[in-house]
Amino acid sequence: METWAPTDVPALEGSGPPLRLYDTATARVRPTAPGETATMYVCGITPYDATHLGHAATYLAFDLVNRYWRDLGHDVHYVQNVTDIDEPLLERAERDQDDWVVLGLRETALFREDMEALRVLPPRQFVGAVEAIPEIAELVEKLVASGAAYRLDDPEYPDVYQDIEATGHFGYESNYDLDTMLQFSRERGGDPDRPGKRHPLDPLLWRLARPGEPSWESGLGAGRPGWHVECAAIGLNRLGPQVDLNGGGSDLIFPHHECGALHAESLTGEHPFARHYVHTGMIGLDGEKMSKSKGNLVFVSKLRNAGVDPNIIRVALLDGHYRTDRSWDDDVHATGEKRVARWREAVDLDTGPDGAELVTKLRTHIADDLDTPGALAAVDAWVDEALTRRGTDPAAPGQVRAALDALLGVRL
Ligand code: 5CA
Ligand code: ZN
């Protein structure tokens, strides 16, 4: 698919320490150690509704990773999918008497606009599930041929499932116990109670066509792919058997990333699929998780249409740590607005306090598991000094302006 337009990133002098990030699989903050090319797969949207602030916060967190790796001199190979065929999309289309293809195209177009407005750097490849179906089916066929996948014992719909025992590593990514896995599987699109499976947690790889459902021909019979294998195939085929980072919101820890790792690892024999599994906290509205089912969504496009400066959305969302579940409310918005105004006032001055020192602080905070609250506080301190005592360095305002742009994506 077409991505959105890239935005230019100013080059800064020098560089900071290696990026350390919390890895869900090992439950530790560990340094990332990419080669010349850093590889990152971040799960994309299911386009049945507009981008809300929860999605935005998640993509902003990975945008900071992208920006920081680039600042370290890496070539970042970033891949993102679009789940443009799945249950929720079909259900919404049915509810609204809409065509699922049109719905997906419309919401994906809006997502691109939102990302561009937020100055999120685009992935190098932005891949829809539908366009990837031949490669996904091929992966599933290989898993069947290797004995890692099997046909369900069901006379009507012998769908294809993967055996969770295939790698000997299942469970290493989420570290959840069986009851938690069963619960999340049930809540997040799995079918642990379906009869005929070898293990309740075995994930679906290929769903045979049901009457009235869209389907695609393949060596497995006409049907459509399961959700996790979509991301495994799109990631593997573009980034290779191991990636530096596999990311998404914390609701993707299980079953999505656990099963994606299972598929990829049983195909390639390489473990772990991702050197870091990085997960963002959930954004709520006034204390309640923002979700389509609760109907309490704040859409990026709505705020934009109301004239809100996207810098304010960025700064307000980055005010909390990416791993913390947090809320959006009027105060968060107002604090972001005030901050952006003060920052702008300070970088518009002719001179300022030491800019290089602030750039070092910004890099140090970001490298420390994306400590954006610390980074924002450091900018506030520089701004306070600039606005109260002024400073004597004529290069400082320009340096700070460039660093806010390059590292935080805030362009004043
Ligand atoms: N298409 C799949 C991934 S392959 C999917 O989860 N789509 S989504 O549209 O439901 O979510 C897109 C991304 O936003 C995911 O990483 C998800 O974890 C994240 N996300 C969803 N809701 C929130 C929220 N309230 N706060 C933070 N992140 C969220
Ligand atoms: Zn995914």
Task: Give an account of the 3D structure.
- The radius of gyration is 22 Å and the shape is elongated.
- Helix 4 crosses helix 6 and helix 6 crosses helix 7.
- It is α/β, with parallel strands linked by helices and about 400 residues long.
- The model has no long low-confidence stretch (mean pLDDT about 95).
- Helix 1 links the parallel strand 3 and strand 4.
- It is built from 13 helices and 14 strands.
- A 5-stranded parallel sheet has the order 5-4-3-10-11, with helices on both faces.
- The protein binds 5'-O-(N-(L-cysteinyl)-sulfamoyl)adenosine (5CA) and zinc ion.
- Zinc ion (ZN) binds next to loops.
Strand element count: 14
Strand order, largest beta sheet: 5-4-3-10-11
Cofactors and ligands present?
A: 5'-O-(N-(L-cysteinyl)-sulfamoyl)adenosine, zinc ion
Rg from C-alpha positions?
22 Å
Low-pLDDT segments: none
SSE class = alpha/beta
Query: Distance between termini?
Result: 31 Å
The secondary-structure element order is: EEEHEHHEHEEHEEHEHEEEHHEHHHH
The major pleated sheet works out as: 5 strands, parallel
Number of helices: 13
Percentage of residues in helical conformation: 40-55%
Quick overview of this protein structure:
By secondary structure, this protein is an alpha/beta fold. The chain is 42% helix and 15% strand.
Could you give the topology of this structure?
Layout: E1 20-23, E2 28-31, E3 37-42, H1 53-71, E4 75-82, H2 87-95, H3 100-117, E5 125-128, H4 133-146, E6 149-151, E7 160-162, H5 178-187, E8 204-208, E9 223-225, H6 227-239, E10 243-249, H7 253-268, E11 274-280, E12 283-285, E13 288-289, H8 300-305, H9 310-318, E14 326-328, H10 330-347, H11 355-367, H12 372-388, H13 396-408
Parallel strand pairs: 3-4, 3-10, 4-5, 10-11, 12-14
Antiparallel strand pairs: 1-2, 6-7, 7-8, 8-9, 12-13
5'-O-(N-(L-cysteinyl)-sulfamoyl)adenosine (5CA) binds at residues 43-46, 54-55, 57-58, 81, 83, 231, 248-249, 251-252, 280, 282-283, 289-290.
